[in-house]
Specification:
Strand order of the largest sheet: 5-4-3-7-8
CATH superfamily of the largest domain: Glutaredoxin
Radius of gyration: 19 Å
CATH class of the largest domain: Alpha Beta
Shape: globular
Number of strands: 11
Strand content: 5-15%
Distance between the termini: 14 Å
Number of domains: 2
Structural class: alpha+beta
Bound molecules: heme C
């Protein structure tokens, strides 16, 4: 139920800012991602003055994992001062949603981790390494990118004492209406080397790529006993695959629920490849 309420709220905002003819903010993020606890975060919905921090992580990267206590602490402080919202992001195409959920539960992560199943956030920010932090200010502009702090001079070269807390300092300056300085630092960690999205070896599957889109954008009406034909499971989506990939929705408020061009391309590629189901371990349906 909570999911549907959030979706409805996001779409109202989408209409106000991203509607036809209106230029989107420089770094608009017109999509939603589900965190590993099953909560949907509409990424274009910014309250006034809201700053967001996205830190790209990967389960297999020791430096990223080693930063979790620092990020937990920053998250606690940001919650106390109300300065910004911190999200972890997992975009690794070789990690399933279930594996990520188990991993970050074991690491006692306190901040929400977005599961970037189709790499929309990764494509937008293009992190070079994990961990790398991106700070988006209230106007949607990128205000800082880079390392969390200077704990690592290079891989294998750890400082005795951390002297710069780049991410926390950037947020402090933004809070005081100043530009972060430095606004960019070199992240140290594991290089991000994922297969390009436009290559054939990139898999587009129902559970990983399609189910989240149908869930966020369509399920409010297109579900069992909803106001339109059912799209709420693999079999239903396959039955309607051609229709949803090629025909625009006829629904009443559907303009606000339109798929982004990226989501449309996912539907088309999925259809072209024979609508593969993929791994149920990626399914957002059984999110916790
Ligand atoms: C606010 C409700 C609502 C939402 C959200 C919605 N739809 Fe619809 N949609 C409808 C209704 C109502 C119809 C017409 C009744 C029917 O065909 O069952 C419809 C019809 C359609 C049709 C048939 C169009 C035709 O010409 O045959 C397609 C395809 C479709 N929707 C796809 C989608 C997809 C994909 C999404 C999500 C990206 C979506 N819709 C989101 C309500 C909605």
């Amino acid at each position: 139920m909570r999911i549907f309420v959030l979706v409805a709220w996001c779409c109202t905002w989408g209409l106000a800012t991203g509607g036809e003819g209106l230029a989107p903010p420089e770094k608009s993020l017109p999509f939603s991602l589900m965190d590993l606890d099953g909560k949907v975060h509409p990424l274009d919905c910014q309250g006034p003055g809201e700053i967001r921090v996205f830190v790209f992580l990967a389960t297999e990267c020791p430096i990223a994992n080693g930063n979790i206590p620092t990020l937990n602490q920053l998250h606690r402080e940001l919650g106390r001062t109300g300065t910004a919202k911190l999200f972890g992001v997992v975009s690794d195409p070789f990690t399933t949603r279930d594996e990520a959920a188990r991993h970050y539960r074991d690491y006692q992560t306190r901040f929400p981790i977005l599961f970037d199943s189709s790499r929309q956030l990764c494509e937008r920010f293009q992190p070079s390494h994990v961990p790398e932090a991106f700070v988006v200010d209230a106007t949607g502009r990128l205000a800082y990118r880079g390392a969390i702090d200077n704990a690592w001079e290079a891989v294998g070269k750890r400082r005795q004492v951390v002297t710069r807390h780049y991410l926390a300092e950037a947020l402090e300056r933004l809070r005081a209406n100043q530009t972060p300085n430095p606004a960019r630092t070199q992240p140290v960690g594991c290089p991000v080397e994922y297969p390009p999205l436009d290559r054939p070896e990139r898999a587009v599957t129902y559970h990983r790529d399609i189910a989240p889109v149908l869930l966020f954008r369509c399920a409010e009406c297109h579900r069992e006993k909803g106001t339109a034909f059912d799209l709420s499971g693999l079999e239903q989506a396959k039955l309607q695959g051609k229709r949803i990939a090629t025909t625009p929705c006829k629904g009443p408020t559907a303009a606000t629920r339109q798929c982004t061009p990226f989501e449309k391309s996912l539907l088309q590629v999925w259809l072209d490849r024979g609508m593969p189901p993929g791994d149920t371990a990626d399914s957002p349906g059984k999110a916790r």
